[in-house]
């Protein structure tokens, strides 16, 4: 890979993404700050997260609880208003740890995990904001609740978590036009009177904002290509 020009810094990439988010909100007739940026820092070192923090970014996403535990507690000490979202598939036995370190878990997708999160909430006396991940493409290898079960599962989560249930999240199939998936997720959220819609990544966050995303999860467009895990 050729070396990046010096103007291509993490700070400049972050600024550029922020402007594109604001412009997309504008174009969609939404408030300029209607979609929040989750900077996805998975596989990147704490030093990269710090650079983003110095550039004003406060909200981060991590896939793995273990990696988040290694990186974020020290950062949080230095930057108390930092926010962390868990955006990767969550094992039941990691639910308690996830609730300890995260401000939101975006990947609630099965009854066993609902039970584990309920127990964690009882034990800690609080729960992070929770998002139901919907497998909008019904892809067998992907986490998320299948479309056919989404209504019932969202209703279950509402019963168990009340207003801790913040919204829905999806990752459309890679080879498909994401727009119909975003439209479906936004409609489902609306039907369940949920305000939060986490959708859109580096390649398609502008489309997601057009369809009502309130959170966009952008990794490589900010931090560059991910080093191998
Ligand atoms: C890695 C990841 C992202 C960020 O993807 P980019 O294409 O690098 O922006 C967003 N959401 C989830 C769930 C991810 O795992």
From TrEMBL:
The modification N6-(pyridoxal phosphate)lysine is found at residue 42. Keywords: Pyridoxal phosphate. Signal peptide: none annotated. CDD domains: PLPDE_III_YBL036c_like (cd00635). The keyword Cytoplasm does not apply. Its cofactor is pyridoxal 5'-phosphate. It comes from the Bacteria. One of its GO terms (molecular function) is pyridoxal phosphate binding. It holds the Pfam family Ala_racemase_N. Residues 14-227 form the Alanine racemase N-terminal domain. Belongs to the pyridoxal phosphate-binding protein YggS/PROSC family. Pyridoxal 5'-phosphate (PLP)-binding protein, which is involved in PLP homeostasis. NCBIfam families: YggS family pyridoxal phosphate-dependent enzyme. This is Pyridoxal phosphate homeostasis protein. It comes from Swaminathania salitolerans.
